[in-house]
Amino acid sequence: MHARVPSYSAIRRVMINLDYEELQVVFNQWSKQSGALSYQL
Fold first, then answer.
1. Sign of dihedral through CA atoms 29, 30, 35, 40?
2. Distance CA 37, CA 7 (A)
3. Is the pTM of this model over 0.70?
4. Which residue stretches of the chain are H helix?
């Protein structure tokens, strides 16, 4: 079975219904758990 790419309308429905404030909270919690990335210049 091959995976299919979601249609434009499916992606659009998800994006319209996202609660961006909640997404920000959850993303920040996840990033704190994952640890900070260190970059060396």
1. negative
2. 33
3. no
4. 8-17, 20-34
